[in-house]
Amino acid sequence: MPTSMCAGSNPLLANLSGYSSLLGVWSSISGGAWKKGLPVKSLYQYELLISLVKEFGFFLAQEFFWWNPARLPTPAEWVTVRRIRVKDAVNTIWWLAKTPYPKASNKRVLQPYSESMRTLLKNGYKPKRRPSGHDISDKFGRDNGGAIPPNLIALANTESNSAYHRYCKEHGIPEHPAKYPVLLPAFFIQMLTDPGDMVVDPFGGSLATGEAAELLERRWVCIEKDPEYIRGGLGRFEYANPDEQRRLFSRQRDPYKIFAPNLIPTRSLEPLSEDGGSNGRRKKV
Ligand SMILES: C[S@@+](CC[C@H](N)C(=O)[O-])C[C@H]1O[C@@H](n2cnc3c(N)ncnc32)[C@H](O)[C@@H]1O
Predict the structure, then answer these.
(1) Considering only Cβ atoms within 10 Å of each terminal Cβ, which end of the chain, N or C, has fewer?
(2) Distance in Å, CA 277 to ligand 1 centroid
């Protein structure tokens, strides 16, 4: 059985039990994860997850969080108008599998070492017991070609000069409103499949998964109900540019930065509103 996967956001996943890994991307890109008109989140993704595990026999291999550092402060009403929630900048990705051991290797998705780790590798490391009680052996100082990534994928959704973008612009095709950056499916394709394996995305949209699979020499199938999105997605292949594709996987990208919490003192701020913001006024548009 080839290792395959799909990216999507509804129970069609349950019909794809023949594949060894399934990925469900629950995105708030299009704002769907919030209850309409309320500052509370929908539990749909958790209900679906529990049903897939309990009723359909999947295992939750791991959950991932895709953080989009370029995400605008949304939902605007709760975040920028009433100021009662923070930016919803993380999407959840469930990695499900039919066995507890789907094929996978984190060696495929190593990240560049941090500055401090590079210094340590250069100067050597003395094995010792950490304050946490963990014994760090001399293997810690070995260069493994990169660091094991966390399950937080930091990736801006700002491919504004891609083949897809240029093609849509030139052909007057509207861009997909919820397209993913190609490096997102590429991460999972690298970690969970081998060249030649089949990658299936039943919610293909702008064919970002197809492009990632093509670049990584996997076979792929994308299914999409809106022909206009497919028409735009074909530009990814028609306007493909090898230099651009090489740059996509280049190490030259700057890492993203996120601050520790509570770095700005709050003592002079007004007290919290007892009504939780329910009487806040909507901004006139
Ligand atoms: C979040 S978007 C996927 C975006 C895609 N990953 C990309 O990067 O462009 C979900 C897509 O699923 C499509 N879709 C929803 N229900 C579908 C169905 N039953 N069959 C096929 N496509 C469907 C929608 O039209 C939409 O384009």
Answers:
(1) C
(2) 34
Residues with Cβ within 8 Å of 6's Cβ and at least 6 positions away in sequence, in order, are: 13, 16, 19, 22, 23, 24, 200, 201, 202, 203
Q: What is the DSSP string of 204-255?
A: -TTTHHHHHHHHTT-EEEE--S-HHHHHHHTHHHHT--HHHHHHHT-TTSPP
Burial class (CB in 10 A: 0-12, 13-18, 19+), 266: exposed
For 117, list phi and psi in degrees, rounded to 5.
-70, -35
**Beta carbons within 8 Å of 11's beta carbon, 6+ residues apart:** 48, 51, 52
- The pLDDT of 115-129, averaged and rounded, is 79
Domains of the chain: 11-111+149-248 (3.40.50.150), 112-147 (no CATH)
- Per-residue pLDDT of 238-259, as tens digits, reads 999 999 888 888 867 788 888 9
Answer whether 7's CB lies under 8 Å from 201's CB. Answer: yes
Going by the DSSP 8-state scheme, the letter that residue 93 receives in this structure is E
Are 123 and 145 in contact by the 8 Å Cβ rule? The answer is no
**Cβ-contact 135, 129 below 8 angstroms:** yes
Distance 109 CA to ligand 1 centre (A): 26
> How would you classify the pairing of strands 128-129 and 90-97?
unpaired
Q: Of 12, 175, 224, which is best to mutate to test ligand 1, by the most ligand atoms within 8 angstroms of its C-beta? A: 224
The pLDDT-based confidence of 21 (bands split at 50, 70, 90) is: confident
Q: Report the alpha-carbon distance of residue 45 to residue 10 in Å, rounded.
A: 9
Compute the distance between CA of residue 95 and CA of residue 80 in angstroms, rounded to an integer: 32
Q: What is the pTM of this model?
A: 0.88
Nearest CA to ligand 1 atom 18: 225
